[in-house]
C-alpha cells in the first residue's frame, strides 16, 4: 500500500457526492445515530462496484451501451426522486423530534441505492484499483481486496465525520425554519445537479 493510494483515496472520499449529501441530510434530520447508519449504508453501496471491478463486470458496463445507459438512467431517476423528496416538508430532510422515526433498515436501503445506481462508480474502481497493484504482485486479487477494504474504511470514517458534524448543528436548524427551508432547496438542487451530471456521463 502506497502513500499515493492513501492520498488518492482521501481526495475521492472527501469530495462531496451523493453519499456525502445523504449522510449530511440524515445527520441534520434525525441526529447522530441516523448519520452513522447512513454512512454505513453508503459504504455498503460501494461493495457491488468494487466486486464488479475486481471480477471484471465493470468491463461490461464499459463496452455495453445498453447496460451502461440502463443503469445510468435508473440512477438519474433515483437522484431526481431524492431531490423531490428532499423538497417536501415531510420528506428526506424532515427534522424529526423522534430520531427513531425512520428505521435503520430504511436509511441503509436508501443509502445503498444511491451508490448502487451509479455505473460510473464501477468504471471508476475498474480504472482506480489496478493502478496500485504491481505487475509482479504474487497475489493481485488479495491485494485488490485489501485496497478495497481500506477504501471502504476511509469512506465510513469520513462520512461519519460529515454526519456527526451535521448532527451537531441540528438544534440550530430545528430552531430556524427559514434555514431549514433554504437547506431543503440547496440539497434538492445538489441532487438535481448530480443527476444532470450523471445523465451526461459517458462510458
Q: Total strand count, please?
A: 0
Instruction: Return the structural class.
Output: mainly alpha
Task: Quote the distance from N terminus to C terminus.
Answer: 28 Å
As for the number of domains, it is 1
Topology as a string of helices (H) and strands (E): HHHHHHHHHHH
Describe the structure.
The mean pLDDT is 78. α1 (3-14) runs parallel beside α9, α2 (18-30) packs antiparallel against α3 and α2 (18-30) runs parallel beside α9 (140-168). The chain is globular, with a radius of gyration of 18 Å. The two termini are 28 Å apart. It has one domain (18-90, 99-199). It has 11 helices and no strands. The protein has 203 residues and is an all-alpha fold.
Tell me briefly what this model is.
The protein is mainly alpha-helical and 203 residues long. The chain is built from 11 helices and no strands. The chain has one domain (18-90, 99-199).
How are the elements arranged and paired?
Elements: H1 3-14, H2 18-30, H3 32-44, H4 47-55, H5 57-63, H6 65-87, H7 104-116, H8 119-128, H9 140-168, H10 170-174, H11 177-199
List the main descriptive attributes of the protein structure presented here.
about 200 residues; mainly alpha; 11 helices; globular
